[in-house]
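To whoever picks this up:

The nightly regression suite flagged Glycosyltransferase, GT2 family as changed. Nothing in the input moved, so I suspect the structure step. Input below, exactly as stored in the fixture:
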Amino acid sequence: MSTLWGISFDAAPISGLVVEFVKTARLFRDRGARVCLDLGYDIKADKNAFFRPYTDERDHLPDWVRLGRVDGIERLDGYTADFVAEILQGVVQGGNKLPQKAETLSEQLKDLLLATWSKMDVTSVIVENGTLPENVIYTKALYLAIDEYGRRNRLGPFVLWRDHDLMWQSEPGTGKYGEFPYPGAIRPRESPFIHYVVQHQDALDHMLDWVPGLPNISVLPNTFSHIPHSGNPRFRQAYGIPGNASLLARCTRIIPQKRIDRDLHLLAALTDRVDAYLFVAGDIGEAPDEYAKLTRLATELGVSERVVFGGKLAPRETVSPTGFSVRDLLAHADIVSFLTSYDYESYGNPIGEAIASGVPYLTSRYELYDTVYGSLGFRAPVLDITTHDLPTEAFVAEVADLLLDERKRGQMAEFNHRLGERHFGRDRAEEALAALLPAPMGERTRMSVVIPVFNEAANLPSALASLYDQRDSGGMPLDRALYEIVLVDNNSTDDTAEVVRAFTAAHPDLAVHLIPEPEQGPACARKTGMDFAAARSRGREDGARFYLVGADADCRVAPDWLGELFATMESSKAAIGVCDYYYAAEHFTHRPRLWTEIQKTLRCRQVTFSLFGGFPDGKGFAVDRDVYEQVGGIEIFYQLSGGRFVNHLSDDWDFGIKVRASGEDIVYAPKSRVEINPRRVNHAIEEVITGRAYGSDGVIVMRDIRVADPVVDLEGDLTEAEALQAWEFSIKDFTPKNVILPVLLTPSLLDDAQVIEFFGPSLAKRLARRIAEITEEMRIVDFTPIHAYKTPSFRLYFEFADEIFARLRATVGEDIGYPPPLPPCLAEVPAERFAEFVHYYCEDRESGEAHNYFGNGGVF
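Regenerated output under the current build:
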């Protein structure tokens, strides 16, 4: 069972942070997740709760929230509340270097977090207020643990890091956390595993001033279930409040900053006009001096008999079995008061709860009021505390009029309720959460379609539309519960993300996930997407096979592409299914020579793939998830190019080689078709002709083909010489990879009747014998490294080229022709020593001559 792990840096059993966690966690619980919450007793030093056991904290929480702690944290040598407080003091004073003891504790705490999460099978984490530098030891450990846990378990953005309070919001007049730019605090850091959330635009602007360019950060306002409740009918009676009296409700901590004295003055001013009572829900023991001061003031104002200090109530989201909750208070209140101080640092949940409960509210114009509520048009009496510290005569009259006019109260509450549901309703929370943290995979989902994207905003609408409009073998819409789409954004600078978000919003019946991959390169992006999809599909116990499907953003899939690929995999025992590819003829109307050469290559491909299954290509393939993980997934290789390391472009081929070499089968799905974007030829035609389409001298790279090159004549055809040269490079690339490599990796194919028929009995036997000799000679066990499979494939090509081309002419067509001329150096070698010098030629990594001869990739 998956687990949501919550971490509150507040160290309080009941607080705004805990309430918001419970509301968000309910969405995970509805998805079937177990919910655990660490209240942060072992994090925050000033609450005198370090290592204190939990006792009655559970009484204030829903029964589905389990309280948790980090196993073993109390045994960390030197990790004490005093040391944490000492570190915080250093941070406030501007220190930006942690002492070695703190660094060591962070590492040790990171290990404990990892052990706890692994034990609990944690799949999602919510961090509440982790950016505040209350405990930078813990914050640093948390970042380390998130990165390691995310990589180890191949997770996407599994952490929601939500900051309710920030340095510039928390008691700014006191300089509690130092001064901007807060050099000692740990700034939010870029991570593919974290999505940051703040509660309003003002906080977002401040955050980006502090950490410019921070990605994956959003505004997510607090949300509320907009369902009014009748409440416990015994509430008023239990607290001695007459049933016909007007009731003002104040839900707040009883501390000086909350300015409850204003409520007492308001109540006193109302008594001549309205029979009113004030209920204050808060812990009277948190600040005894403030409580004593307020009770004295109530007596001085003559309202002590009308003020109820009711103590802590269970959150609005909780139905308390032993007492009353905020829900009960709001059900009996006529108006909710929030006359807080101007620099109140947070969202104003009491206002939001009043709106959601269908109760009018009154408020002070605290610093963030207009940002959060006022600018959205909510209606309420508002006390301007920039000019008046205590309630004015006009303000008191407005409140009295509202309390005495039930119709006006109802209209205001109804207006605010409708507006609040639109901005802060549960639906808003679910939509935001789905965008930030992907929902668990559907029970019927059998395929994840993984697409690397880099600046593909122009192509994505049509590519996504073609995926949405997939059909089954009967021509009916493919059940969209069968598949999901995983898009891997590889540092796009265009509108890729916006295009994806717009598509997702318009097509809610198809699951679409957008995840980042910071390391540039399609291989890295494909691996990240495949690993993410594999991890999401783990833990399923229905016994059905699950498939990871590769596709490219610039290609268009046929309407039955996915259905045919799925059917082929289901009806076979193969580990990989490979699609058929084609170009649309209308793109080559004025280029008949180029079209002819392309078609010759594709005809060869259809024949050999039908025989051998072929190898996966990023344009379209499927792999069984279990096999993907058994062989270690996609492996990233690096080569030097221009004095720097670049990742290898043949990740799809190399992966197929690993699977084939492990003994697994590959099947060809000829009815599963993908149209190749002609830009792959258009913008690289010179490289195709000269055999440098994917690099040269042994380095496999390719230039960016997204941007049109004005020098290239996209409509011009090849000359006869260029067409011949393009064909020779294409067939030299094709034959070792698609005719020789399959039997090199799986010699048992040479015992298959159809394969024997293709090669002829004599050639099949001699190929089998020669493969065994070369394998023994080279001591090759694992053909994974690219040169390890290239060398023997190239050698076999030279030794058997004439006979293989004869079979291609007989099977595919006479226009396939004869092998291209040998390299000049081999043409002069005596026949009896030909195989010997072919070996030297193909093994020569210094010059890369063999690589250049074979062109390393006709893109046809």
